[in-house]
Design goal:
Number of helices: 16
Largest sheet: 9 strands, mixed
Helix content: 40-55%
CATH class of the largest domain: Alpha Beta
Number of strands: 11
Strand content: 5-15%
InterPro entries: Emycin_Estase, Hydrolase/PRTase-associated, UCP036794_erythomycin
Shape: globular
Radius of gyration: 21 Å
Protein name: Protein-L-isoaspartate O-methyltransferase
Distance between the termini: 14 Å
Length: 439
C-alpha cells in the first residue's frame, strides 16, 4: 500500500494560481475543442479513468470517442476488457450478430467479476450509437478487448473455430484442454499449482499458437474471425504466463499484463492498416505514463509508457479525475457491487488543488504546466479500483505523479456519480486483486 503524504513543499496558493491560469472551464462538452486541437494528428489516443465505476468518466469518454471517430477518422476502440466478450460487442456494432439481438443481451456475456465495468447502461448507449453509425459506413468501427484474463474463454473460442473450420488442428487444442482440465477453469488453482510444477501447460499453449499460425492463412483478405482466433491463441500464451507470475510477483504479473495490452494494440493497428488510428479506454493507472510515477521505482510499467516509446509523437494520453461523489465498487474482491461514497480528495493531492482552484469541471493541457512546479514534483493523484474502502484512503489510493509528464491532457469533473450497471451475476470469482488497486 502507498502511504499518502501531503507534499509540504508545495505552496498551495501558488498551485491554485497555476491551475486557474492554465485551466479551460468545461461548462459543456464544447469546452473540449482545445483538446481536439491539441490531439492533432495523433494515431493513438488513450482515455483514462480514476475508477472503473464512475458515470461521468464513461460519458465524457464516449463524447470524446464519438468526435474522434467522426472528425478525425479513428477506426477502432480497444478497452481494458476481455477479448472474447468485447468481440461480441464488436460483432453487434458491425451488424454481425443474430437478427434482433439487443445490446443488453450482448453485455450479458460479461459475467466475470467485476461485471459492471462493461455491462452497464453507459456502454450500452455507446454501443447502440456505434451500431447506428456503422450502418451508414462501408468501413466499420471496431471494438476490442486488450486484457489477458480470458484464458478459458479464449481456449473455448479456439476450439469452436477449429471444430468448424480446421478440424485437423483440433488435436492440439484437445491436448491443451486435457492439460488444464484438472484445474476446472480456475485460474487461481492453476497459478498455485505452478509453484510446484512451474512449466505446467506452458509448452502446450505455445505449441497451439504455433499450430494456429502455421495453419491459418495470412490476412490478405483481412478476415477478422481468423485474426480473432490467432488473438485468442496469443491470449492463451500470455494468460498462462500471467497466472503463473501472479502468485510469485505482483510487479511481474502487472508487467506481463500491460505488455500483452501493448502487443494486442500493435496487432490491431497492423491488422487495420498502416494509417489506422486507435482509441484506448483503460484506468489511469494503465494509461498515464508510469515513468512519471512511483511505479517506475518498483520496476513496473504500463501501456501508456509502452505506447509512447513504440509510437513517439503519435500517442496522446488523457487522464481523468474528480474531487468527490460516488462510485460502483466492491469492498473486497468478488464482493457484491455497491454504490460507495467517495470522500473529498485528500489535502495536498492533485484533485484537492483542482477543486480549490474552483469547484467546476475543467480541462488542463499539460504542456502548459511543465514549466511550473507541477512539472517537477510528484503529487498524489487518486486511483480507485474495483475494490474500494474509502476509510483506508490514507494508506493508499494515491499515486505520486508528475502530472505534466504522466498525461498530455487532464479532464477534471468536480463531483461525480456512480455508473449504472446491468445487474449480471458473476459466474465465478477466480482472479485475485492485482497490483496496485485492483485496476
Amino acid at each position: 500500500m502507498r502511504l499518502f503524504n501531503a507534499n509540504s513543499k508545495v505552496n498551495e496558493k501558488e498551485a491554485i494560481e497555476v491551475i486557474k491560469e492554465n485551466s479551460i472551464l468545461l461548462d459543456d462538452t464544447g469546452g473540449l475543442d482545445a483538446l481536439f486541437d491539441k490531439i492533432g494528428d495523433a494515431r493513438i489516443v488513450m482515455l483514462g479513468e480514476a475508477s472503473h465505476g464512475t458515470h461521468e468518466y464513461y460519458t465524457w469518454r464516449s463524447h470524446i470517442t464519438k468526435r474522434l471517430i467522426t472528425e478525425k477518422n479513428f477506426e477502432f476502440i480497444a478497452v481494458e476488457g476481455d477479448w472474447p466478450d468485447c468481440y461480441n460487442i464488436n460483432k453487434f456494432i458491425k451488424g454481425q450478430g443474430d437478427p434482433g439481438t439487443q445490446i443488453q443481451q450482448v453485455l450479458g456475456s460479461f459475467d466475470r467479476w467485476p461485471t459492471w465495468m462493461w455491462a452497464n447502461w453507459e456502454v450500452a448507449a455507446l454501443s447502440n450509437w456505434l451500431h447506428q453509425y456503422n450502418n451508414n459506413q462501408q468501413k466499420k468501427i471496431g471494438f476490442y478487448g486488450l486484457d489477458v484474463y480470458s484464458l478459458w474463454e479464449s481456449l473455448e473460442s479456439i476450439r469452436k473455430y477449429l471444430e468448424k473450420n480446421e478440424p485437423e488442428a483440433l488435436t492440439k487444442a484437445t491436448e491443451i484442454f486435457r492439460c488444464f482440465e484438472p484445474y476446472k477453469g480456475d485460474e487461481t488453482s492453476y497459478a498455485y499449482a505452478s509453484r510446484i510444477v512451474p512449466e505446467l501447460c506452458e509448452d502446450k499453449v505455445l505449441e497451439l499458437l504455433q499450430e494456429i499460425q502455421n495453419r491459418l492463412p495470412q490476412y490478405q483478405l483481412k478476415d477478422e474471425q481468423i485474426f480473432s482466433t490467432e488473438q485468442n491463441a496469443v491470449i492463451a500464451v500470455n494468460a498462462e504466463k500471467y497466472y503463473r507470475a501472479m502468485i510469485k510477483s505482483n510487479e511481474d504479473s502487472w508487467n506481463i499484463r500491460d505488455s500483452h495490452m501493448q502487443e494486442t494494440l500493435e496487432r490491431l493497428l497492423d491488422f487495420h492498416g498502416k494509417d489506422s488510428k486507435a482509441i484506448v479506454w483503460a484506468h489511469n493507472t494503465h494509461v498515464g505514463d508510469s515513468s512519471a510515477t512511483d511505479m517506475a521505482d518498483e520496476g513496473t510499467y504500463n501501456i501508456g509508457e509502452l505506447a509512447r516509446k513504440a509510437f513517439p509523437g503519435e500517442t496522446f494520453l488523457v487522464g481523468f479525475g474528480s474531487y468527490n461523489g460516488s462510485v460502483i465498487a466492491g469492498d473486497s474482491w468478488g464482493a457484491k457491487m455497491q454504490s460507495i461514497l467517495v470522500p473529498d480528495a485528500r489535502q495536498g493531492s492533485w484533485e484537492y488543488f483542482l477543486h480549490k482552484a474552483s469547484p467546476q469541471n475543467k480541462l488542463l493541457l499539460m504542456d502548459q504546466l511543465k514549466d511550473s512546479f507541477f512539472g517537477e514534483k510528484r503529487i498524489g493523484h487518486r486511483a480507485i479500483g474495483v475494490v474500494y474502502r474509502p476509510e483506508y484512503e490514507r494508506y493508499g489510493n494515491y499515486v505520486p505523479s508528475v502530472l505534466p509528464d504522466r498525461y498530455d491532457a487532464f479532464t477534471y469533473i468536480d463531483k461525480t456519480q456512480a455508473l449504472h450497471p446491468l445487474h449480471i451475476h458473476p459466474n465465478a470469482i477466480t482472479v485475485p486483486e492485482t497490483y496496485p488497486f485492483g485496476v
